[in-house]
């Protein structure tokens, strides 16, 4: 049943127009139903104070066969009962939401930290490369007063076993005489051993050990003289020979790098 009723007054023309249009539309859409006698259109006061349109047809206007989805599986148990206020369980539900959010955040941060750590560690040198970056030298193989040259990271490495005289001489050098002032004790861990990179600080030649005016190293390329501590004393080289990082795991072994 469809009914339309309205008050009198200024709405009367509109109600009348709607009544006429509705009656025509019903006839056009359901001619069969209308002709079978199941339809009735009642009009009252077509030009009067009110209008009434009534239709009763064998036509279904609501789709009652559509199945309404059931979301019960996805709803929280506390709000399943329509007679209970959702506010009563809001505290518990909020606590659960906070717990889930916090757990997700913790897992996310841990995953991000793992990814970043793996990414950064993938850029560091591998174990075999690190092994090549160090050199272990047996000191008992180097007699006192001798210098031995090793290859380390593609460069010559000088390991010098100094005599007592050399130790005393280098320790007593006045720093004001030096171009690159550095005390001997700041260049050695053990006074008996001088360990330096054998590359001239002028243009990169390899100096000759136990040569030159100071008995340390001599670079024949342009005549630079280094003392027995590897400090530049004469010639064009501007700096002392470089001292690499090294340590003595025991008194007979040195590991450089
Ligand atoms: S490279 Fe050694 S003095 Fe020039």
Automatic annotation (TrEMBL):
This protein's name: Cytochrome b-c1 complex subunit Rieske, mitochondrial
Family matches, as InterPro entries: bc1_Rieske_TM_sf (IPR037008), Rieske_2Fe-2S (IPR017941), Rieske_2Fe-2S_sf (IPR036922), Rieske_Fe-S_prot (IPR014349), Rieske_Fe-S_prot_C (IPR005805), Rieske_TM (IPR004192), Ubiquinol_cyt_c_Rdtase_Fe-S-su (IPR006317)
Family statement: Belongs to the Rieske iron-sulfur protein family.
EC number: 7.1.1.8
Primary gene name: UQCRFS1
One GO term describing the cellular component: mitochondrial inner membrane
Cofactor-binding details, from the entry: Binds 1 [2Fe-2S] cluster per subunit.
PANTHER family: CYTOCHROME B-C1 COMPLEX SUBUNIT RIESKE, MITOCHONDRIAL
Compartments where found: Membrane; Mitochondrion inner membrane
One MF annotation (Gene Ontology) recorded for this entry: quinol-cytochrome-c reductase activity
Keyword Cytoplasm: no
More info: The Rieske protein is a high potential 2Fe-2S protein.
Keyword field contains Transcription regulation: no
Classification of source organism: Eukaryota, Metazoa, Chordata, Craniata, Vertebrata
């Amino acid at each position: 049943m469809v009914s339309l009723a309205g008050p009198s007054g200024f709405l009367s023309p509109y109600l009348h127009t709607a009544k006429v249009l509705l009656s025509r539309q019903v006839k056009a859409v359901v001619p069969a139903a209308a002709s079978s006698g199941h339809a009735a259109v009642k009009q009252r006061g077509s030009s009067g104070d009110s209008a009434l349109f009534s239709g009763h047809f064998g036509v279904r206007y609501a789709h009652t066969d559509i199945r309404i989805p059931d979301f019960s599986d996805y709803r929280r148990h506390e709000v399943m009962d329509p007679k209970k206020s959702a506010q009563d369980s809001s505290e518990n539900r909020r606590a659960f939401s906070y717990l889930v959010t916090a757990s997700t955040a913790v897992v996310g941060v841990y995953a991000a930290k793992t990814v970043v750590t793996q990414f950064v560690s993938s850029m560091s040198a591998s174990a075999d490369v690190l092994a090549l970056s160090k050199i272990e030298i047996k000191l008992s193989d180097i007699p006192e007063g001798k210098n031995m040259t090793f290859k380390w990271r593609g460069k010559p490495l000088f390991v010098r076993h100094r005599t007592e005289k050399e130790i005393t001489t280098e320790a007593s050098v006045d720093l004001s005489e030096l171009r690159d002032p550095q005390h001997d004790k700041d260049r050695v861990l053990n006074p008996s051993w001088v360990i330096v990179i054998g590359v001239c600080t002028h243009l990169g030649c390899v100096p000759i050990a136990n040569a030159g005016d100071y008995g340390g190293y001599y670079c024949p390329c342009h005549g630079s003289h280094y003392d027995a501590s590897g400090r530049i004393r004469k010639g064009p080289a501007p700096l002392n020979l470089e001292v690499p990082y090294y340590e003595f795991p025991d008194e007979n072994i040195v590991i450089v790098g």
